[in-house]
Amino acid sequence: MALEAQHVTINVGSKTIVDSASVTVKSGCITVLVGPNGAGKSTLLGALSGHSALSGGRALIAGKDLTQLTPNRLCNQRAVMLQSDNLVFDFTVDDVIRMGLVWQFEASEVEKSEVINDLAFKCEIHHLLSRSILTLSGGEKQRVHFCRCLVQILGRRDSETAKYLLLDEPTSSQDIANELRLLELLKEAAVQRDVGVFLIVHDLNLAAHFGDVFYVMKNGRLVANGERDAVMTQDVLSSVYDTPVQTELTSSRLRIYTF
Questions:
Q1: Does the pTM of the predicted model rise above 0.85?
Q2: C-alpha pair distances (Å), 180 with each of 28, 58, 113, 123
């Protein structure tokens, strides 16, 4: 069971943003995509989520082309967290999280509230449920949308349907404690619930610690992929980021230094 991009190309006007990229996101694994700004990472995530129109190639979930699936079917199999939320209406935090209740007609109000309260507590936003989303800090808003995605994918236990979380820099506005908390929740979802996670992140040390499979992107092309020690190397990272990068492997933990 996998979510796949097969030789995906995306053009915007005369510019190629993603150039024949192939990615496999397996259930139970955290697949990490790294690369410099403007590499095409967010656009590739859009292809995997079904949000981006493809100029070539195809995107599949469990062997089925995303373009052939209904919005309801897609929502029940994958949740997407983008870099910006674009919410301008005065929704409460509870309202926003409930947008993830795509399975709501199969659950009682008590069951839905239990799921929301449990995941809101784990995301450290339980005390914000009655607040307006417009009054929150950037980090708080980010955790609200993270929680919405967890509710969408983890709220209903369906062992027969593969589930995927696609997240574009979900920790960019978080402090150290919340950054680790969110990534631990992703690891828990992958290991305990067999969820496939596709994660774009800029912090290379966090990527190295939490990732299982790695892809490196530059100028619209994937330049390396595989396991951590084969991909997150000094030569690959220094070349991709056009700056000296040093790596140190101690006690099976990889440390990455840029200065």
A1: yes
A2: 19, 34, 26, 11
Q: Token pair for residue 35?
A: 């690369």
The β-bridge partners of 23 are 5
Q: Which residues of 158-194 are buried (b: 16+ CB within 10 A; e: fewer)?
A: eeeebbbbbbbbbbebbeeebbebbbebbbebbeeee
Say what angle helices 176-193 and 138-154 make with each other, to 10 degrees: 10
Q: What are the DSSP E strand ranges found in 92-232?
A: 164-168, 196-200, 213-218, 221-226
Taking the C-alpha atoms of residue 105 and residue 24, their distance in angstroms, rounded to an integer, is 32
Sign of dihedral through CA atoms 127, 132, 135, 138?
Answer: positive
What digits encode the pLDDT tens for the residues 148-159?
999 999 987 666
H/E run at residue 160: none
Both tokens assigned to 237? 């990272």
